[in-house]
Amino acid sequence: MIALHKSLSSLQHVYNKIVNIYSHLFGAVFFVILLIYVYVRARNHYAAIQIGDIIGVAIFFFSVILCFSLFASFYIMSNYSEKVAAYWNQFDYLGIAVVFVLAVVCTIVTLSTKFRHPTLRLYRTAMYASLGLSAIVFIIHGLIVHGWEIQNQRMSLTYMLTTAMLNFLAAVVYAARIPERWHQLRYDIYGCSHQIFHFIVVFAGLIYMFGLLSAFGFIHSQAHLCSKTDVHSYN
To answer: Where does the chain have alpha helices with state H?
Structure first.
Protein backbone atom coordinates (compact mmCIF):
# COMPACT_ATOMS: atom_id res chain seq x y z
CA MET A 1 0.00 0.00 0.00
CA ILE A 2 2.89 2.36 0.68
CA ALA A 3 4.24 1.81 -2.83
CA LEU A 4 0.75 2.35 -4.29
CA HIS A 5 0.41 5.59 -2.32
CA LYS A 6 3.77 6.75 -3.70
CA SER A 7 2.65 5.96 -7.24
CA LEU A 8 -0.53 7.97 -6.76
CA SER A 9 1.35 10.80 -5.08
CA SER A 10 3.44 11.16 -8.25
CA LEU A 11 0.43 12.98 -9.71
CA GLN A 12 1.54 15.97 -7.64
CA HIS A 13 4.97 16.16 -9.27
CA VAL A 14 6.28 17.18 -12.68
CA TYR A 15 8.12 14.37 -14.44
CA ASN A 16 8.30 12.84 -17.92
CA LYS A 17 4.97 10.95 -17.65
CA ILE A 18 2.82 13.63 -16.06
CA VAL A 19 1.51 15.11 -19.34
CA ASN A 20 0.59 11.63 -20.59
CA ILE A 21 -1.34 10.97 -17.38
CA TYR A 22 -3.32 14.19 -17.18
CA SER A 23 -4.03 14.43 -20.92
CA HIS A 24 -5.97 11.17 -20.66
CA LEU A 25 -7.38 11.64 -17.17
CA PHE A 26 -8.93 14.92 -18.27
CA GLY A 27 -9.96 13.28 -21.54
CA ALA A 28 -11.77 10.47 -19.67
CA VAL A 29 -13.54 12.90 -17.34
CA PHE A 30 -14.46 15.16 -20.24
CA PHE A 31 -16.08 12.28 -22.14
CA VAL A 32 -18.03 11.27 -19.01
CA ILE A 33 -19.46 14.79 -18.90
CA LEU A 34 -20.18 14.66 -22.64
CA LEU A 35 -21.94 11.30 -22.24
CA ILE A 36 -24.33 12.76 -19.66
CA TYR A 37 -24.89 15.90 -21.73
CA VAL A 38 -25.54 13.98 -24.96
CA TYR A 39 -27.91 11.57 -23.24
CA VAL A 40 -30.01 14.35 -21.69
CA ARG A 41 -30.06 16.35 -24.94
CA ALA A 42 -30.98 13.30 -27.05
CA ARG A 43 -33.81 12.31 -24.72
CA ASN A 44 -35.25 15.82 -24.94
CA HIS A 45 -34.64 16.34 -28.67
CA TYR A 46 -35.59 12.99 -30.20
CA ALA A 47 -39.03 11.73 -29.16
CA ALA A 48 -38.66 8.39 -30.98
CA ILE A 49 -35.30 7.45 -29.44
CA GLN A 50 -35.02 3.75 -28.60
CA ILE A 51 -32.93 1.78 -26.11
CA GLY A 52 -30.88 0.43 -29.03
CA ASP A 53 -29.96 3.98 -30.03
CA ILE A 54 -28.81 4.74 -26.50
CA ILE A 55 -26.74 1.56 -26.32
CA GLY A 56 -25.16 2.21 -29.72
CA VAL A 57 -23.96 5.70 -28.78
CA ALA A 58 -23.04 4.66 -25.22
CA ILE A 59 -20.71 1.93 -26.56
CA PHE A 60 -18.58 4.62 -28.19
CA PHE A 61 -18.46 6.80 -25.08
CA PHE A 62 -17.73 3.94 -22.68
CA SER A 63 -15.00 2.52 -24.93
CA VAL A 64 -13.29 5.93 -25.20
CA ILE A 65 -13.59 6.52 -21.44
CA LEU A 66 -12.15 3.06 -20.74
CA CYS A 67 -9.41 3.58 -23.32
CA PHE A 68 -8.27 6.88 -21.79
CA SER A 69 -8.58 5.49 -18.26
CA LEU A 70 -6.37 2.50 -19.11
CA PHE A 71 -3.80 4.81 -20.67
CA ALA A 72 -3.67 6.99 -17.57
CA SER A 73 -3.64 3.99 -15.19
CA PHE A 74 -0.59 2.53 -16.89
CA TYR A 75 1.44 5.71 -16.52
CA ILE A 76 0.37 6.14 -12.91
CA MET A 77 1.40 2.56 -12.04
CA SER A 78 4.54 2.45 -14.19
CA ASN A 79 6.76 3.64 -11.32
CA TYR A 80 5.38 1.06 -8.84
CA SER A 81 7.78 -1.72 -9.85
CA GLU A 82 9.18 -3.22 -13.04
CA LYS A 83 6.79 -6.19 -12.81
CA VAL A 84 3.71 -4.02 -12.21
CA ALA A 85 4.76 -1.63 -14.99
CA ALA A 86 5.07 -4.55 -17.43
CA TYR A 87 1.64 -5.83 -16.39
CA TRP A 88 -0.11 -2.46 -16.82
CA ASN A 89 1.70 -1.85 -20.11
CA GLN A 90 -0.56 -4.51 -21.60
CA PHE A 91 -3.59 -2.46 -20.64
CA ASP A 92 -2.03 0.63 -22.20
CA TYR A 93 -2.13 -1.13 -25.57
CA LEU A 94 -5.44 -2.81 -24.78
CA GLY A 95 -6.93 0.66 -24.42
CA ILE A 96 -6.39 1.15 -28.15
CA ALA A 97 -7.99 -2.15 -29.10
CA VAL A 98 -10.99 -1.74 -26.81
CA VAL A 99 -12.21 1.28 -28.81
CA PHE A 100 -12.91 -1.07 -31.69
CA VAL A 101 -15.82 -3.40 -30.85
CA LEU A 102 -14.92 -7.09 -31.17
CA ALA A 103 -11.26 -6.36 -32.01
CA VAL A 104 -10.42 -9.94 -31.04
CA VAL A 105 -7.12 -10.35 -32.87
CA CYS A 106 -5.69 -7.10 -31.56
CA THR A 107 -6.82 -8.00 -28.04
CA ILE A 108 -5.09 -11.39 -28.15
CA VAL A 109 -1.87 -9.93 -29.55
CA THR A 110 -2.00 -7.03 -27.07
CA LEU A 111 -2.06 -9.41 -24.09
CA SER A 112 1.01 -11.26 -25.40
CA THR A 113 4.12 -10.47 -23.34
CA LYS A 114 6.28 -10.38 -26.48
CA PHE A 115 4.18 -7.55 -27.89
CA ARG A 116 5.53 -5.04 -25.35
CA HIS A 117 9.12 -5.14 -26.60
CA PRO A 118 10.41 -1.71 -27.77
CA THR A 119 11.63 -3.19 -31.08
CA LEU A 120 8.00 -3.91 -32.00
CA ARG A 121 6.98 -0.25 -31.79
CA LEU A 122 6.51 0.01 -35.59
CA TYR A 123 4.55 -3.27 -35.75
CA ARG A 124 2.22 -2.12 -32.97
CA THR A 125 1.52 1.07 -34.87
CA ALA A 126 0.88 -0.83 -38.11
CA MET A 127 -1.48 -3.30 -36.45
CA TYR A 128 -3.68 -0.65 -34.85
CA ALA A 129 -3.65 1.41 -38.06
CA SER A 130 -4.80 -1.66 -40.00
CA LEU A 131 -7.56 -2.22 -37.48
CA GLY A 132 -8.83 1.30 -38.03
CA LEU A 133 -8.60 0.98 -41.82
CA SER A 134 -10.77 -2.15 -41.74
CA ALA A 135 -13.79 0.17 -41.52
CA ILE A 136 -13.21 1.07 -45.19
CA VAL A 137 -15.03 -2.13 -46.20
CA PHE A 138 -18.32 -0.89 -44.74
CA ILE A 139 -17.82 2.61 -46.08
CA ILE A 140 -17.27 1.35 -49.64
CA HIS A 141 -20.36 -0.84 -49.39
CA GLY A 142 -22.45 2.12 -48.23
CA LEU A 143 -21.14 4.33 -51.05
CA ILE A 144 -22.06 1.70 -53.64
CA VAL A 145 -25.59 1.37 -52.24
CA HIS A 146 -26.42 5.00 -51.39
CA GLY A 147 -23.85 7.22 -53.13
CA TRP A 148 -21.63 9.88 -51.55
CA GLU A 149 -24.22 12.53 -50.70
CA ILE A 150 -26.52 10.24 -48.70
CA GLN A 151 -23.79 8.03 -47.25
CA ASN A 152 -21.81 11.07 -46.11
CA GLN A 153 -24.80 12.03 -43.97
CA ARG A 154 -25.59 8.48 -42.89
CA MET A 155 -22.05 7.80 -41.66
CA SER A 156 -20.66 11.35 -41.33
CA LEU A 157 -17.87 10.39 -43.71
CA THR A 158 -16.31 13.87 -43.62
CA TYR A 159 -15.92 13.58 -39.85
CA MET A 160 -14.73 9.97 -40.12
CA LEU A 161 -12.09 10.84 -42.72
CA THR A 162 -10.88 13.71 -40.55
CA THR A 163 -10.67 11.32 -37.58
CA ALA A 164 -8.76 8.78 -39.69
CA MET A 165 -6.27 11.42 -40.86
CA LEU A 166 -5.71 12.64 -37.30
CA ASN A 167 -5.16 9.08 -36.04
CA PHE A 168 -2.77 8.43 -38.93
CA LEU A 169 -0.89 11.63 -38.09
CA ALA A 170 -0.71 10.56 -34.44
CA ALA A 171 0.63 7.13 -35.46
CA VAL A 172 3.31 8.69 -37.67
CA VAL A 173 4.41 11.10 -34.92
CA TYR A 174 4.55 8.22 -32.42
CA ALA A 175 6.37 5.73 -34.69
CA ALA A 176 8.87 8.29 -36.03
CA ARG A 177 9.51 9.79 -32.55
CA ILE A 178 8.90 13.35 -33.70
CA PRO A 179 10.36 15.75 -32.51
CA GLU A 180 12.77 14.07 -30.04
CA ARG A 181 14.55 12.17 -32.79
CA TRP A 182 16.12 15.48 -33.82
CA HIS A 183 16.59 17.00 -30.35
CA GLN A 184 17.35 14.39 -27.71
CA LEU A 185 16.69 15.31 -24.06
CA ARG A 186 14.99 18.58 -25.00
CA TYR A 187 11.48 17.04 -24.90
CA ASP A 188 11.85 14.67 -21.94
CA ILE A 189 9.24 16.54 -19.88
CA TYR A 190 7.10 18.45 -22.39
CA GLY A 191 6.47 18.06 -26.12
CA CYS A 192 7.63 14.50 -26.86
CA SER A 193 6.02 12.35 -29.57
CA HIS A 194 4.01 10.29 -27.10
CA GLN A 195 2.43 13.41 -25.61
CA ILE A 196 1.62 14.80 -29.06
CA PHE A 197 0.14 11.40 -29.91
CA HIS A 198 -2.13 11.57 -26.84
CA PHE A 199 -3.45 15.06 -27.56
CA ILE A 200 -4.14 14.24 -31.22
CA VAL A 201 -6.01 11.07 -30.22
CA VAL A 202 -8.18 12.97 -27.73
CA PHE A 203 -8.97 15.58 -30.38
CA ALA A 204 -9.73 12.82 -32.91
CA GLY A 205 -12.13 11.30 -30.39
CA LEU A 206 -14.02 14.59 -30.20
CA ILE A 207 -14.24 14.82 -34.00
CA TYR A 208 -15.53 11.24 -34.13
CA MET A 209 -18.13 12.08 -31.49
CA PHE A 210 -19.41 15.04 -33.50
CA GLY A 211 -19.64 12.80 -36.55
CA LEU A 212 -21.49 10.11 -34.61
CA LEU A 213 -24.04 12.61 -33.31
CA SER A 214 -24.44 14.16 -36.76
CA ALA A 215 -25.18 10.76 -38.31
CA PHE A 216 -27.49 9.96 -35.40
CA GLY A 217 -29.48 13.14 -36.03
CA PHE A 218 -29.70 12.47 -39.78
CA ILE A 219 -30.91 8.88 -39.35
CA HIS A 220 -33.59 9.97 -36.89
CA SER A 221 -34.75 12.81 -39.13
CA GLN A 222 -35.12 10.33 -42.01
CA ALA A 223 -36.98 7.89 -39.78
CA HIS A 224 -39.40 10.69 -38.89
CA LEU A 225 -39.98 11.47 -42.58
CA CYS A 226 -40.43 7.78 -43.39
CA SER A 227 -43.04 7.39 -40.64
CA LYS A 228 -44.99 10.34 -42.08
CA THR A 229 -44.81 8.85 -45.56
CA ASP A 230 -46.09 5.51 -44.28
CA VAL A 231 -49.03 7.20 -42.54
CA HIS A 232 -50.03 9.13 -45.68
CA SER A 233 -49.70 5.99 -47.80
CA TYR A 234 -51.93 4.07 -45.39
CA ASN A 235 -54.55 6.82 -45.44
So the answer is: 2-9, 18-45, 51-77, 82-98, 104-110, 121-133, 136-146, 148-155, 157-176, 193-234
pLDDT, tens digit, 9 for 90 and up, residues 185-217 = 889 889 999 899 989 989 999 998 999 889 888
Contact 155, 135 (CB under 8 A): no
Of 6-10, 55-59, 103-107, 209-213, least confident by mean pLDDT is 103-107
Domain locations in the chain as residue ranges: 17-228
- Are the beta carbons of 53 and 61 closer than 8 angstroms? no
Contact (CB, 8 A) for 72 and 24: yes
* pTM across the whole model: 0.73
Q: Under 8 Å CB-to-CB from 111, ≥6 apart: which residues?
A: 90, 94
Query: How far, CA to CA in Å, does 235 sit from each of 58, 204, 228, 229?
Result: 37, 47, 11, 10
CB atoms within 10 A of CB 109: 17
